[in-house]
Amino acid sequence: MRRRVLTRPQKWVVTLALLVLALGLANLARMGVALRYGSILPVLPMTVPLEYLAAVGAFWGVVLTACAWGLLRFRRWGRQGTLAAVTLYQAHVWANHLAFDASDYARQTWLWDLLVTLFLLALVWGSLHLRSVQNVFKERKKDDPSRRSF
């Protein structure tokens, strides 16, 4: 079987997909940790219920992993879904900061968190709006041999 050589824009999409996949897997791990803590520390006082953290981790884990899969397959919905999902994910992160950060230390990290958020959004939006990257997601004819993804 002949291996397909990826173009530079395709390699960039794969790299971005791996980043989105890492975010998705981290959220699935967060779900697992919340469920574990809920079982071993059922009366732990928290500003937010562990069930909420587990549900949110599961939701974003599934959404971001699906978007990564769409990017890896060079699907148009993967590009559009990633733009929407990463933006909404960051909005949700900030809603949680504003609603649930209870300590002074948590508030002291907001500047760093803001910088990370801006960097992530700039990376995702900037990358997926490059003309060469957008061309990767153009629909191809069914008989086009380059239609197959890896």
Helix content: over 70%
**Rg of Cα set:** 19 Å
- The general outline is elongated
Low-confidence stretches: none
Roughly what fraction of the amino acids lie in strands?
A: under 5%
Q: Order of SSEs, N→C?
A: HHHHHH
Mean pLDDT: 90
Number of helices, counting only DSSP H or I runs of 4 residues or more: 6
Count of discrete structural domains: 1
SS content category: mainly alpha
Number of distinct beta strands: 0
The major sheet is characterized as: none
* Amino- and carboxy-terminal Cα gap: 12 Å
Overview of this protein structure:
The chain is mainly alpha-helical and 150 residues long. It contains six helices and no strands. The longest helix has 33 residues, at 8-40. It starts with 7 loop residues before the first helix and ends in a 14-residue tail after the last helix.
Give the secondary structure arrangement, pairings included.
Layout: H1 8-40, H2 50-72, H3 76-100, H4 104-108, H5 110-128, H6 131-136
Helix pairs in contact: 1-2, 2-3, 3-5
Question: What descriptive keywords fit this protein?
Answer:
single chain; mainly alpha; elongated; 0% strand; 150 residues
Brief summary of the model shown:
This protein is mainly α. 74% of the residues lie in helices and 0% in strands.
